[in-house]
Specification:
This protein is of the alpha/beta class. It has two domains: 6-246 and 439-461, 3-Layer(aba) Sandwich (Aldehyde Dehydrogenase, Chain A, domain 1); 251-430, 3-Layer(aba) Sandwich (Aldehyde Dehydrogenase, Chain A, domain 2), CATH 3.40.309. Helix content is 42%, strand content 20%.
């Protein structure tokens, strides 16, 4: 992949206002693989102006035509799938198979879902003597992280474009190359100039300028709680809309009637995939005390099998952070049954697949998001205890429940304070709303609920 040395603004690659660049590093070997420009407030302003200028035309474009552009975008993503997977592997370090099956494939499904949805969605409703129009909110500022770098872009841009909004994207500094590739795809798909704009850069510079820009109508952010809180406060002060997707500490609740081996094995796979860098990962496994020893053994064996099959984490800072959490868990009394706080290689930001046993609910590792391949196994006494532990964090993004009987699992899931629950290993559904209860965020992505985020109502009374 070839890095662009400019910003994609108003339908063309333009020189950046400043001269600073960001090094893009391959986390497997720590080599610099490219540079992208580090955008400033000036670049952000140019991009917002382009988005504003394009807004009336795009908002007035019939939904079927917006859908046709999204279908074309999906087709370009399909045609360039290998290139996308290779790019994500190069800048995130994820294993090639995972890049193909998840990082490249999921965005195709999501772009396709909005190409379809927009053609059937009711942008007009009748309620008694009123006609209600669902109109696009305006210019969207999208700020995305690196862990699912293309998915997180498409999960914002596709519904925004479907709704008739225009977008300025500031992607994560660690994964800007796939964002540039996405801008090329948008261009190839024939999306009109200014409807989508890309400014690469650092969070506290370009990201902050975008979040604070007075002509942005909605800020959609995915990332850390610390940054999300600031963005929410800024948006609140300006009375503009905001969507925040801030991660979690999800519980995998294994009820006594479940198939224990299956629940543990799928649970371990869930945490190790993408090297644990998944906001909805089930990082707390909850097991009944009578089955606890067996579950820990199964988990340790399963984790050991991952060995060197998982990729590194994204950068040196994340590696140090994750290893620090493992040390902290041990210091607070957890037992190390797989992996550990030593980095496994001389080179690359690797972390061994790690399982911490005898974790109690108040420990730091049971409360804070680690964002690495680290599973905590907790013991519960009875169902009420399991529910208290499952709901006992500030987060509420996702979760899982396993039981012999589906109805039993559903009854438990309905009592969890969380935005989505997988029942007995239920599969990811790109049409289901994704988002959190409590401090996991505000707003929803994907499907019709994700589209509604980018619309506002206008009621006409007759
Ligand atoms: P982050 O700083 O919150 O990054 C997310 C995005 O926000 C990036 O594009 C980032 O730019 C940008 N940003 C940073 N500071 C900003 C500011 N002041 N104003 C506007 N935008 C700003 O997250 P991180 O540092 O990459 O990761 C730290 C932790 O966050 C992880 O360990 C994990 O716990 C959590 N996290 C959660 C998710 C999730 O999916 N919920 C995703 C990633 C990380 P830069 O890339 O330049 O920093
Ligand atoms: Mg950051």
């Amino acid at each position: 992949m070839k890095a662009h040395d400019g910003m994609y603004i108003g339908g063309e690659w333009r020189s950046a206002a400043g001269r600073d660049v960001i090094d893009v590093v391959n986390p497997v070997d720590e080599q610099v693989i490219g540079h992208v420009p580090a955008g400033t407030a000036e670049d952000v302003d140019a991009a917002v102006r382009a988005a504003r200028a394009a807004f009336p035309g795009w908002a007035a474009t019939p939904p079927a035509e917006r859908g046709a552009r999204l279908a074309a975008l999906r087709d370009v993503l399909v045609a360039r799938k290998d290139e996308i997977a290779e790019t994500v592997t190069a800048e995130l370090g994820s294993p090639p198979q995972f890049s193909q099956n998840v990082h490249a494939a999921v965005p195709i499904a999501v772009a396709g879902s909005y190409a379809d949805l927009v053609t059937t969605y009711a942008f007009e409703e009748k309620h008694g003597n009123s006609t209600v129009y669902l109109e696009p909110v305006g210019v969207v500022g999208a700020i995305t992280p690196w862990n699912y770098p293309l998915h997180q872009i498409v999960a914002k841009v596709a519904p925004a474009l479907a709704a008739g909004c225009t977008v300025v994207l500031k992607p994560a500094e660690d994964t800007p190359l796939v964002a540039q590739l996405f801008a090329e795809a948008v261009h190839e798909a024939g999306v009109p100039a200014g409807v989508f704009n890309l400014v690469t850069g650092l969070g506290p510079v370009a990201g902050q300028a975008l979040a604070e820009h007075p002509d942005v109508d909605l800020v959609s952010f995915t990332g850390s709680t610390a940054v999300g809180r600031r963005i929410g406060a800024t948006a609140g002060g300006a009375v503009k809309r905001v969507a925040l997707e801030l991660g979690g500490k999800s519980a995998n609740v294994i009820l006594p009637s479940a198939d224990l081996a299956k629940a543990v094995n799928v649970g371990v796979a869930n945490v190790m995939s993408n090297s644990g860098q998944t906001c909805s990962a089930w990082t707390r496994m909850l097991v009944h005390r009578d089955q606890y020893e067996e579950a820990v053994e199964l988990a340790a064996t399963a984790a050991a099998k991952y060995g060197s099959r998982i990729g590194p984490v994204v950068n040196a800072k994340q590696q140090a952070r994750v290893l620090g959490y493992i040390e902290k868990g041990v210091a607070e009394g957890a037992g190390l049954v797989a992996g550990g706080p030593e980095s496994p290689g001389e080179q690359g930001y690797f972390v061994s697949p790690t399982v911490l046993a005898d974790v109690t609910p108040e420990m730091t590792v049971a409360q804070e998001e680690i964002f690495g391949p680290v599973l905590c196994v907790l013991r519960y006494d009875d169902e009420e205890d399991a529910l208290r532990i499952a709901n006992g964090t500030v987060y509420g993004l996702a979760g899982a429940v396993w039981a012999g009987d589906e109805a039993e699992a559903v009854a438990f899931a309905r009592r969890m304070d969380t935005g989505q629950v997988d029942i007995n290993g239920g599969r990811f559904n790109p049409l289901a709303p994704f988002g959190g209860y409590k401090q996991s965020g505000v707003g929803r992505e994907l499907g019709t609920h994700g589209l509604a985020e980018y619309l506002q109502t206008k009621s006409l009374q007759f």
